[in-house]
Amino acid sequence: MNEQIVPRDIHTVYEGRIFTVQVETLTLPNGRDFKAEIIRHPGSVVIIPVTRTDEIILVRQYRHAIGRFAWELPAGSLKPSEDAAAAAARECQEEIGLVPSTLAALASLFPTPGYCDEEMHFFRADGLRQPNESETASPDEDEDIETRAFPVAAILQMVATGEIIDLKTVAGVALMERRSPTE
């Protein structure tokens, strides 16, 4: 059942560079009125860059919202009307400086559907290579990124010990664990 409830009123509270916040008034199927606070997001891509030796490249960057550095899979927001695979290739180059020869779509997931409509598109990136002269992408101005390749076992250990706290990274590694490279 994929029934939608149409809001009676939509009030935009904030419009920013990355997302918009809206308060929507609607009536639930049980007849009760409800005000939903929704973060509207254009969607994002999460890249699982796999090296020739089957290691996964993670990025470490400062996340001001949590006041600390975090190891994560490379990721980024979709631009308006941007194809998710094209965004994954762009973000791969922007964040780790390498271009994938192949991208395989793994899944699309909603990380926080209780209050946000962001859909994350997960891609495995293989055949990583240096960009050629015509391929130009650079990190966003607010990014100061360290990159490092890790064996999957090390990443799983980092999750177990709490060193990796980023949920998209946990989900991405879980997706890799259940799929083989040929799927």
How does the SSE layout of this entry go?
Layout: E1 9-15, E2 20-27, E3 33-40, E4 44-49, E5 56-63, E6 68-72, E7 75-77, H1 84-96, E8 102-109, E9 120-126, E10 146-150, H2 152-160, H3 167-178
Parallel strand pairs: 4-9
Antiparallel strand pairs: 1-2, 2-3, 4-7, 5-6, 5-10, 8-9
Your description of this structure?
By secondary structure, the chain is α+β, with helices and mostly antiparallel strands. The chain folds into 2 domains: 9-40, no CATH class; 44-109 and 121-131 and 142-178, Nucleoside Triphosphate Pyrophosphohydrolase, CATH 3.90.79. It is built from 3 helices and 10 strands. 22% of the residues are buried. The model has no long low-confidence stretch (mean pLDDT 92).
